[in-house]
From TrEMBL:
SUPFAM superfamilies: ALDH-like. It holds the Pfam family Aldedh. The lineage of its organism: Bacteria, Bacillati, Actinomycetota, Actinomycetes, Micrococcales. This is 5-carboxymethyl-2-hydroxymuconic-semialdehyde dehydrogenase. GO terms for biological process: 4-hydroxyphenylacetate catabolic process. Belongs to the aldehyde dehydrogenase family. NCBIfam families: HpaE. The keyword Metal-binding does not apply.
Length: 501
């Protein structure tokens, strides 16, 4: 027990159940698991631990709603109204949502509030997109018209991680529902609290019963059962690359549609001609915001040698001033990592880093926080490309900085990991920025910018960072079948077989 505590949110439930066919229910087999407060690591509630039996019930409810219910046939304008009401409710409950999210995940409250606003925005975006949706028509004059008939697919299985959980759930829920599917959501077991708000939001917004179902539980049980369920043709997964591999293999026998948003070790490349102040501010935010638990974190910074000494000195000094604090305090910039297991993993990498590179800031617990999952923003310099802290995703407030001498070397270093999610490039040379952007192996590139994403753009990674893209109409492509309908306008013009004398 420590002497600092986050205030416990009012009216916290003592247990969290599943939500199946419009009812809150316990696990069929009665199991539950503990959920920990990341500041104290004490269990503060229990959540139902779903197994195959619960997933079977949820999929049956979702299938029934899909086959018989009104949602898939509801006109886009009406579905759009429901989605806008969901966005309104998320916005109006944003403070409560952020309070629960911050308490459950250890995210700083100001950042949790930002994520709640983004979750509402995701619903608004897809509400607008489905009424503006146009599909292709192709004409062959006098002969044929071909058109695309877009249809919802059925029950989508949505499996999500614990970093910014509510926002990442909204990212999948909004397009899946907008397209007219039913869903079964399996949220991350470290952070089930904010997901428990969805049922009330959907009920109040008028989403028909059975369209949204939620099964809590461990990945290897509830998640696994969802992936293997024969009546779930689509799985959208966000999480670690190694989990993605397991899911890929488990979904293969049924040839399911898969969307995979996986891990990253994204480079931020700073050339000598960059606006140094802006580059330092952005690369500090890029790896220390959201506690460093961010898939697109710029966790490897590559710096041109002529500015390297100045960069690392200024960077380390600023990193040391980043404010670690209790998640609920408005001034906190880095809160508590989500769970003691994850904390141990990050601390282990910090010890590895001390053997592999030069420690410039942080390197363990911050002063004043002897317990709980607090990690000081940690900066390693002179990190060799073969170092584990250069190659492996740490997913915490830890950055590896490496010098380079030429653009070619910078590119080689940037591409020298198994991941390929994001890249950030800092230079004022127009040609170089575009040439580098086109050569770097990353699904998303930001030039002279932090991670600011227009919701219309594709989101996704290459190499071990993912499969497929979500974002904008690409999400609707994933959650719909695009049936091609061909209409003959003229003569039937196939050769006639079997007509010989
Ligand atoms: P994780 O892979 O451990 O778990 C993610 C989800 O998968 C959880 O709900 C978990 O219960 C479930 N799961 C685990 N094993 C499963 C199995 N065998 N079958 C089915 N489901 C299973 O990931 P995490 O630790 O929760 O999240 C952190 C990871 O997510 C990091 O690697 C991060 O980079 C990645 N991430 C990627 C993106 C992106 O968009 N690319 C976004 C956020 C996080």
């Amino acid at each position: 027990m420590n002497d600092y505590q986050s205030p416990v949110p009012a009216d916290l439930p003592e247990r969290i159940q599943h939500y199946i066919d419009g009812e809150h229910v316990d696990s069929a087999e009665g199991g539950s698991f503990e959920v920990l407060n990341p500041v104290t690591n004490e269990a503060y509630l229990r959540a139902a631990a779903g197994t195959k039996a619960d997933v079977d019930r949820a999929v049956a409810a979702a299938t029934h709603a899909f086959e018989t219910g009104p949602w898939r046939e509801t006109l886009p304008r009406e579905r759009s109204r429901v989605l806008h009401r969901i966005a309104d409710l998320v916005e109006s409950r944003g403070e409560r949502l952020a309070e629960l999210e911050s308490f459950d995940s250890g995210l700083p409250i100001t950042q949790a509030l930002g994520q709640a606003r983004r979750a509402a925005e995701n619903f608004r975006f897809f509400a607008d997109l489905i009424v503006a949706q146009a599909d292709d028509v192709y004409k062959v004059p006098g002969r044929q018209i071909n058109y695309v008939s877009r249809k919802p697919i059925g029950v989508a299985g949505l499996i999500t991680p614990w970093n910014t959980p509510f926002m990442l759930e909204s990212w999948k829920l909004a397009p899946a529902l907008a397209a007219g599917n039913s869903v079964v959501l399996k949220p991350a077991e470290f952070t089930p609290l904010s997901a428990s708000l969805w049922s009330g939001i959907f009920e109040d917004a008028g989403l028909p019963r059975g369209v949204f179902n939620l099964v809590n539980g461990l990945g290897e049980q509830a998640g696994d059962a969802l992936v293997k369920h024969p009546d779930v043709p689509l799985i959208s997964f966000t999480g670690e690359s190694s989990t993605g591999q397991t899911i890929f293999a488990n979904a293969a026998p049924a040839l399911k549609g898969l969307s995979m948003e996986l891990g990253g070790k994204s480079p931020a490349v700073v050339f000598a001609d960059a606006d140094l102040e802006a580059a330092i501010n952005a690369t500090i935010f890029g790896v220390f915001s959201l506690n460093g638990e961010r898939c697109t974190a710029g966790s490897r910074i590559l710096v041109e040698r002529s500015i390297y000494a100045e960069f690392i000195e200024r960077y380390a000094a600023q990193a040391a001033r980043v404010k670690v604090g209790l998640p609920h305090e408005p001034g906190t910039e880095v809160g508590a990592l989500v769970h003691p297991e994850h904390f141990e993993k990050v601390m282990h990498y910090i010890e590895i880093g001390k053997q592999e590179a030069r420690l410039l800031a942080g390197g363990g617990r911050p002063e004043g926080f002897p317990t709980g999952n607090f990690v000081a923003p940690t900066v390693f310099a002179d990190v060799a490309p073969e170092a584990r802290i250069f190659q492996e995703e740490i997913f915490g407030p830890v950055v590896a900085i490496t010098p380079f001498d030429s653009e070619a070397e910078a590119l080689e270093l940037a591409n020298n990991t198994k991941y390929g999610l994001a890249a950030y490039i800092w230079t004022n040379d127009l040609k170089r920025s575009h040439n580098f952007a086109q050569s770097v192996q990353a699904g998303m590139v930001w030039l002279n910018s932090n991670n600011v994403r227009d919701l219309r753009t594709p989101f996704g990674g290459v190499k071990a960072s993912g499969l497929g893209h979500e974002g904008g109409y690409r999400s609707l492509d994933f959650y719909t079948d695009q049936q091609a309908v061909h209409i003959n306008l003229g003569e039937v013009h196939n050769p006639v077989f079997g007509n010989a004398d």
